[in-house]
Batch of 4 targets.
Target 1
Amino acid sequence: MTKLPRISLRAILLTLLIAFGVSAMSAEETPEQFEQRTKWWREARFGMFIHWGIYAVPADATDLEGKHRVAEWYFSNKQMQVKDYEKFAAQFNPVRFNAKRWVQMAKDAGMKYIVITSKHHDGFCMFDSKLTDYTIVRATPFKRDPLKELAEECRKQGITFCFYHSIMDWHHPDYLSRRPWEKDTRPADDADLNRYINYMKGQLKELLTNYGPIGVLWFDGGWEHSAEELRSAEVNAFIRSLQPPILINNRNRLPEDFSTPEQFVPAKSMTVGHLWETCMTMNDTWGYATNDTNWKSSETLIRKLIDSAGKGGNFLLNVGPTAEGEFPPESIERLAAIGKWMKVNGESIHATTKGPFRRLSFDGRATTKGKTLYLHVFKWPGEGLKVTGLKTKIVSARALDGGESLRITSTNTTVDGVEFPVLAISKPQKLDPAATVIELRLAGPPVVDEPEPVVTAETDGSYILKAAEADIHGATAQYEVSGLHDYIGAWANPADYVTWTLNVSPQDAARRYTVEVTYSSLAQYEGSSFEVEFAGATLEGTVMSTPATNRYRTEKLGELEARGGRQTLAVRITQIKNGPAMSLHQVRLVPLP
């Protein structure tokens, strides 16, 4: 088969996938092959992100007004000219860099893969590119290729090596658009974005042919252009022609293999078959900054890892090395603490799938591995640990840390006239401040029948119906996360609808509410119509466009009256104009005085 038909077929497939918002696979790939190709990544669950570049020289996470920003955006934060920013390259000499030590710290922490910045938005290349002199080998006193050394060390230690690569490039003369303060000093009259994409493809070829097998190509900085302008289908097909097994994320404006929520773990599991990975910093910034001391605790980071695994996702935890080539001591301390916990409890994270419960009755999460169920208890309940809804017989129960056998007693609870099983688990003598893991060996895969979650009123009497808490009915609409936002998207079939169950307290009977709907929609999809049905009344609305998919508008549809008791609110699309009707973020019921 020639290359051209393959790209053409893939472009067609990706167009369909955009409409339906699901993870992609190559045009020749079956679902079984997709499962096999992504198996290592899904089983890994935990990886290290590394943001390293010449922005580590100033190591400053503030802008011109002193407001806190992320350090790797130093060029933009300080509104610099290219020639002034370039001086940091001559000052970048990471003589204390030790690839073996870096990889060992990742491995000891229980991480299975490393994703490092080959080039960030500033355009500086942390590898030996032959297409520009703006590289660590040619423009710095260091004269070495640290990514080559890391690739070799990862292979030695059994860690999968991966590349982050920024589409945005503030240094390259052909990248558009210019920063606002550069429009007069660096005119864009001769710039050519297509020529830049060819340059980017050349660098991707270097990265994918000179460093051995690469597990992931992690794009970023694609939000200034459309997938068509970035030639993303072509670029992704080109990447796969060089390394067919590689995984590609969703940040060049195509869904590809996995989504990338940033700095938060989604409130619930993604749609079945939709792969995702939360990326998160240990403090507030990705690149190293001396003035960012807001470090998350080790306990918080361990719980974020557990939260991701419990919802079927991966956790990519960032380190920002210094200009000298060392991990900050605060990062080293946290990696060691996570590693200590993982050494005992890692089997409850690696190669697990999401927990079977919609909502646990204790503060914690659950993961599954075949016939084994792991309960991660963040704080042991004062009334004792209870699990509601597990119907599968328990063969044995023990604490992972220490192996202490635990007692199980069984009772029942009744909710809305329906009985559900309740299991009480005895308290182990040894508790972990981050998370105590209980291993339940079952007679078969876990089967759960639990009470339906309900939305209760906020302190002000309002009801906030979040995308993460919706029940989705249909074939296309699904819960999604993009960057810092979550929503119900890919809503391309008018037969699909979403519902929430509310517990409207009796004292609020016959109270009137204003209904607010928060959503986003691209201009080409504007004009679809929808309705909100609640308490026997229906309100109608028309989808209006927003500046971007991550820019929401809140529309007041009108007022309605709700009686007390359990009620269902539904949002339905009544007419679709051109494509996905909208990305629904939330519905809010605001009580009237």
Target 2
Amino acid sequence: MAIELEALVGHLYIAGGRAIHTTPPGALVQVASATAARGRELDTFFVMVLPSGDIAPNTFYEQMATMSAERYFEDSGSATAALRNAFNVLNHNLYEHNIGGHKHYEANMICGSLRGSDLYLARVGSAVAVLRLDGQTTTFPPDLTNDETLFNAPLGVQPVPDVKLSRYNINAGTRLIFGDASIAEMSREKIDATLVAGNMELVLDGFRGMVTLNSRLIGVEFVVPDAPSVIPVVQGESTTAIAGEVVTARQQARIALAEQEKKQSKPTEALRQNTKKSLSSVAHRTAQGMEAVGNIVEKIAPEPDSKEQKKLSFQMVTAAVVGIPLAIVAVVILQWVTGTGETEFEQCLRRANEAAEVARGIDSSQRQSVLAGWQGMLQITAVCQELRPDDENIAALRREGQTVVDALNNITRRELQVVATFPNATISQLVLQGLDLYALDDTNNLVYRVQLDGQGQAAGVPQPIANMRQGATVSGLTLGEILDIGFDDQVDTVVAVDNTGVLVRCPPRFINQCDAQRVLASENWVNPIAITIWQSRLYVLDIGSAEGQLWRYDPSGGNYASMPREYFAGQLRPNLARAVDFDISGGGTVYILFSDGVMTSYFGSEPQAFGFSGFPDGQELETATSRAMFLNDSPINTGFYIISQAQRSIYETTLAGTFMNSYQVFDPENLALMTDVAADPGQGIVYVASGNAVLSIPTGGN
């Protein structure tokens, strides 16, 4: 069944403890106009602009909300890039205004973008969101009790805004609240109880009872079209009719099948033709619906010419564009309701072929419908493959469908090779130096060396390094639990550091002739997670203190004999609590990767402008869970390789953060245990640690 979601929108505006019956200044919900950029036609935009510092006139917040929507719908990039761009433009205008000696203006802001069933959220300052999804309450930021994450610098204060992003997959019944930091003062139990109230009016009434003095809220409930609402809405064209045709076609086919089964005969040719005719009609109507989406706004939301109409426009249906891709899936799945008198596999194969025909017939300009059509076909072939795993016809259909889906999602899919496996191991870290690949076995606290041949594959059995294992005694020091490994290219030594500060160095040419020392002040480390060696200086990333720190050890006489320096000093230190990895470029720029896909850069501890861009929709790093990174600092394809275990993907970007490629393999479960990545751009190979193996993936060719 095709599911179409609508957004029922309400507002709450409390000032001085009194409810004001008007839309809060700065609250806006808007669908795309006919002039929206390509890729924005199906989006719905939500924004709440909130006061910060001195209170500005109401028109200030209204104009900011309007401008943010305009900037969003003008941007043809990914949803997260468009959200980030809207923040950057507004912040630039405010910041330039503020440093010009005029009256100082600031603002907190939170935005949302609905694309299909994906809800993207972005915030700057102390604005927050609360979602009720699948019976659970989620907040953005996740911890409203942590002032460091709740209260960030608002727009207009810094030259580059600190934009936080997140993505959620929503469904019918999801409820969303945009509001100010006063939500953090409310009881979590009361919020949970309020969000499950009978309708959005009762939800807003519940929040009204929890507000003491001032608050501005947007409340949104995502519902199916026929759901009753206490909020007046204007009905407009949607995909309900298309969904109805899908249901009708399915019912007709089932009735015909039941009659044929009673007669214990095969379906007649007329039945097959009627079913195909019904499917063709539904697919044709679906394509027409896609073409008409760009005009829906003009039909259901004419430009308001009065204050009352403007108020109503804030409360109208804004998400009539969700159901069309799902209708396409319903069309291809509908193939399952016909066909008797064949083996189960023959029926499955026929239906898969028919689904592929439907998918091939969809207008290629309708990206979401094409994507949904082929994904529906892949669902059918997955069942067929269980019935006959080695069938060439099914394999060909799956490869065709996967190729189309990958092309639409900008995914490069490769065959992987096993470079080396390790007994009872969990490989957590990789270091590549020439034709030597070093791997840290986190289970046994042991470092291996894998020597590679000219094609980048293992030239022999992995060799454990005797002096780089837990319990080994080197220079009178016993190595404990190994924290990380690195390579000092200034003196050509591989380095291992344990959690207590014991550092062991071994030259590759004489791998068992090692020395060790304990670096000073390692007792001050709280939760060290990674090391990097740059120009023989040792850097240790410690995320365990209040904000975290990057400790720097300078060499002297071949040892680290002095106390460490704090890389980040002063009042404005970055919060490193969610950092997962870091590296340093040849020029000395420090790059720190966080679990939410954000990367920050610093030079001499001063923040540098950096941001990822150009990522295809749905693959933005902000929406994935990042695990580790590799900085390719060679002259060949300088940039980053970043792994996301959750997405089973390796992302390649330029040094400036621009998307280049997304690499996956034909069996994604082979990357389900990814922990680290290294790359040899000269050979065109990416090495991945996954489980007890090191895998190689070619980045060039087909």
Target 3
Amino acid sequence: MKKIVIVVLVMLLVLVAAPWGIGRLAEKRVNAGLDKLVEEAPYLTIVERKWTGGWFRSEQEVTFEVFGAWIDAMNPKNVLAGGPTAGEAVETGAAPEHTSQETAAQELARRQQSAAPGTEAAVEEPAAAEVPAEPAAAPAKPIRFTVRNEILHGPVLWPASLGLARVNTKLVLSDEIRKQLVDYFGTDEPARISSRVGFFGGGSTRFYGDGRTIQAKGETGVLAYDDFELELGYSGDFDEIDVDGSWPKLEYSDPNSGERLLISGMSLEGESERIVGDLYDSEFKFEIDQTLFAGLDRTETTVEDILYAVETWEDDGFFDMTARVGTGQVRNPAFEELKLDLKEVHYDFTLRHLHAETLNKLISTWKEAYTKPVATVAEVEAVVMTPVKEHGLALLRHDPEFSIDRIGVVTADGDGIIKGVLRLPGVTEADLAAGAMGLLDKLVADFNIEIAQSLLEKIPNGATGAGLAVDQGFAKREGEKLVSHIEFRKGELKVNGKPMPIPGFGPPPPAQDGYPAEEAPPQE
């Protein structure tokens, strides 16, 4: 009996004492997580944080600043000015060429005096120091927000998990904003955030909210949506990240106007693993089962199976990324009138052969730029473009390529598709310095276009346009399809093997010795 009592007492002591010790450890881990957050998102800075410790529960208040180092450049007056004001020029001793205070007569008199130096000025110009300076732009207010974290100490976390702590996060709002949220949503917390801090690093964060039906005062439109949830899991150093979320239904309808928007079956899932620095081997997919829209004319457009998918990977020191954007069946009255059955739409692209080490340096330099104070739009452009100039040529030296894997449609009457690739082989510093024309000379493009004749006939004037394209050499017929092979190399454009003029760049190369350009004899 005595042993049982001792065991019970020891267990009670552990259960009671453990939360206090775990609370101290949780404080370190939560603060380390915040430091890692601003490291990964450098446009955020922490201007203040307070921790109030407790036995089973602690509180933390954190104030963030957004784009703090760039706040002066974001001042609307500085953005519109685009540079120093006249007042600033006078203040620094630089005489403005022509201030807004000068009249046309004063300017004319100044030029006449300059042309005949011994003559007396007809109009006396004010001294530079007397030119009224434009009022200085008021300092931009920092963009800040504060969150309050309620930290529940582990090891047992509600509702049914283990960990160092559970962190419930709330945005600190003014009474006025909180009242507006309650009036509209029926709660001051339409979305909630809860995180779990794991024992051995990492954890998870859950964004979620309850479904609601909302009708603003004096409005006939109704917004209704189901419960939504997004869970983000991560390792302690963010080397591994996974995401899983869903939102079954979101709908707005106005019986008076006939307007309606329905989005159903939204989902997001993906995972990523760090390759090096800011580069990840990843695969993410966002999907919507159906979207329906009806405007004031009450005609409905529906789009099914919307997809946005991104995949990135590393292969032998090079980084590739592909994006697929597309839909399934698309219906609307205009298509029905044309008797056009649009089954699929695709936009698929791939960026290949990016030197991973150089790309990571470019991204890291951009991230660092967010921490550098800038005061003007010109300085913003400089910190953004300097990394491009520094690392862009290094990327191009490895001959990356941009591939159009598929831009096209699938219909009951046939398909229309574009495929091709763009390259910039052998780019030098001189080409970059020459700007667009220097790069155009190095551009290599190769595209193939195929369109079913029966599909063209469903489009107004499509058959007529196809005939003109064939007559002018821009397309040729192959069975039941119109095809076109477009090449661009060394400044020369060819369509189906024949040189073609480039709009704005003059005619095609001249023929040789009386031969048509496309039949010119081979060079010896």
Target 4
Amino acid sequence: MLRQPIVCVLGHVDHGKTTLLDKIRSTAVAAKEAGGITQAIGATEIPIGTIREICGPLFSMHGNKVSGTPKASLSCEIESKIQIPGLLFLDTPGHEAFTSLRKRGGSCADLAILVVDINEGFRPQTIESIGFLKEFKTPFVVAATKIDSIRGWFPNLGKPFLETIARQPQHAKDALDEKIYRIVAQLSVQGFNSERFDRITDFTKNISIIPCSGRTGEGIPELLMMLSGLAQEFLKEELEIKGERGTGSILEVKDVRGIGTTIDVILYDGKIEKGDWIVIGGREPVVAKIRALLKPAPLKELRVEKQFEHVDRVSAAAGIKIFAAGMEKAIAGSPIITVKNESEIEVVKAELAKEIESIEFEKAVEGIVIKADTLGSLEAMIRMLGQKNIEIRKAEAGDVHRNDVVTIESADRLKKVILAFNVKVLEDAAEIAKERNVKIFENDVIYRLLDDYEKWVSDEKKKVEQEKLEGITRPGKILLLKGLVFRASNPAVVGVEVVSGIIKSGVALLKNGKEIGTIKEIQSEGQIVERAERGQRVAVSMSEPTVGRHISEGDELSVKISQDDLKVLEELGSAEEVALAKKTLGIE
């Protein structure tokens, strides 16, 4: 028995993900005589009958030449092979589908639609989305949206792409091809071969790019057809329902007026019945008996709907709201398993413990704190930070609290950091963090969060190095210029050129290895300055020496440095400074 594949929609913000999903929904509603749709838990279920109805025009195009493309025989091949019961689209943001709706060894998503604005091409969140697709090895198609905004495009509402492209003027076709091949090039950089779907002969080696519009509905039939075909051809084994036990992942924990705390679950295997025991994995497993299974009315979205229908059972794949005691302890992203017999609970607990064993909640003694919206997001951050050898002291799902700040307030400067992914920073936490110099980074894109942190670390290291260098005496050499003795003694004031290195007020000077005095002041163009660098000509004053007796025009004087100064220079200074320091100290 095959379940419907779970399809994740992801891509950059404003590239048309929501518009595309809304159009798919409205198209399915229009074809309700073929089966209609059901919406629940941020998911849209479209049965195969509805998909066949929407794709009907494609099947009638079999064998016809369309705009110079190969015969559209793929649609008939798909029609004859389809056995899946439908498609389940996740309405949740792409990153949540991959980091929150997780199962052991991967994501709940079986397929994905990568939405790309055909006019903009790849953007930052597009790259992040591809990272998820690569990591979880998720098959995907590219929906190249907003084709109706191409200059000169003539919209054909709700028509298949193969039909509408045949009606376009040549300049619009050329513009489309140019934009498609920019996406092809961008996918190539990411390691994928791709082509416009109707030009592909081997779908195992190429990613399909499907031009479409969420506004006009053009290309929607091909998008649904390609997803159905991919699922049927390549995911048949994965879509087989493996057993009776309900297996899923928590999307959201929320309070419902008149009911209490409930959990929204995506069920990806088995079935759930009222009265089953539910076991929720986590740091502290939650066990309870299911009191109610709730679904919204047909065509209503669970996240906004307030009226629910009570059902006795639900089979995968589906979204369902579950009510049971103790759900307030559940955490979004946690895996769940349901069983009928109480005797199975301990076995299930052990299974779920293995599923989340990669998440270590308290780690290195020295390290940063990370907070995330779900266990799945937390796991993704732990993995990515581990790849960068960044130590973690505490990893936890939930908002940033005062205690998170206190945990690291005494840490090393570069580790007094909290990374907050898609969570709130509570007011008292923000205040104490500011008082105690704890840096908090916030973002709802993981790679941006890590990039911001790494850039800050790099900048801070440079500051630390600069402070360390500023704390030592740097090597330098000056030449006393002829004809520029302004005062012979008490103090001696002479014009000099900095031959190498730097000089500062307060440093001692050596002549032939012997200390002859300390720079009292440095003047440049009549202004007192703290330092002078190689190539600069300045006036210096020294109280101890007398010109003509201790020093003379044409003398070279070196800054006195210590062995400790040399050690710091060998760590942080330039090769030129190290060489000059060694020469000053008489080290070959």
